[in-house]
Amino acid sequence: MALLRLVACGQERGTRLIDLVRMSGLNRPTVHRLLKALMQEGAIEQDAGTRRYLIGPEISLLGLARTRRFPLLTLAEPYLIELAHDVGDTVFLSIRHGHDSICIGRRTGHHPIQVLSIEVGVRRPLGVGVSGVALLASLPEQESAALIAANAARLAVLGEKPADIQARVAKARASGIAHAPAGLMPGTSAVAVPIPGPRGGALGAVTVTAMANRLTADRYTEVVERMRVAARAIARRYSEAAAGAKG
């Protein structure tokens, strides 16, 4: 399963064998043997041209058995649409799953230039991207530090240093906002806020990405406030749904 998660990080471009070895901490023969077994079951496949490994059809077909596997997305949908309409830029919903942040929803706004920095389903080590920083910042310091340390090998493959992630998380924890003035794509910017959970931590994170000139100081404050309103509304709706289910 750990190897499958690493393969999934490659999305449609796939993941190289050398990176799977480095990120997993397993030796090359072991990784190759596991990959071969997974390929025989259709759980992964290998691109004939690039030799990279990708998630196979069997995993996708198994996932169809749980079409309602992300209740948070269902509850958050109207608020994401409203936020995208209000700010005009692209809105993302991400959740934490183990050591990763996963994008489970994306809604575009009305501005002519939309920053589609990541696809739905993208899985990244926590702390890579503002959504992961916001999720880590919602955790106790000791827990977030342990997660960052556990991801050290994967972060190294991505050119990230644990100390830099720690610094971003500390800043986000103090402000309640994770902000990247320079986003994943040149000329873009991104900001994320956590969706508060009923027992601390975060249910997920709401992110807005835009061209950098659309998140200047004055507008940035307005956008963040709208994001916080949406995050609180999603949290409230989640609590109501949970209470209804218990009743």
From TrEMBL:
Keywords attached to this entry:
DNA-binding, Transcription, Transcription regulation
Specify the HTH iclR-type domain's residue ranges: 1-57
Q: Which SUPFAM superfamilies match?
A: GAF domain-like, Winged helix' DNA-binding domain
Stretches assigned to the IclR-ED domain:
58-240
Q: Name one Pfam family in it.
A: IclR_C
| Keyword DNA-binding set for record | yes
Q: Which InterPro entries does the entry mention?
A: GAF-like_dom_sf (IPR029016), HTH_MetabolicPath_Reg (IPR050707), Tscrpt_reg_IclR_C (IPR014757), Tscrpt_reg_IclR_N (IPR005471), WH-like_DNA-bd_sf (IPR036388), WH_DNA-bd_sf (IPR036390)
User: Mind telling me what this protein is named?
Assistant: IclR family transcriptional regulator
| Organism whose genome encodes this protein | Bordetella bronchialis
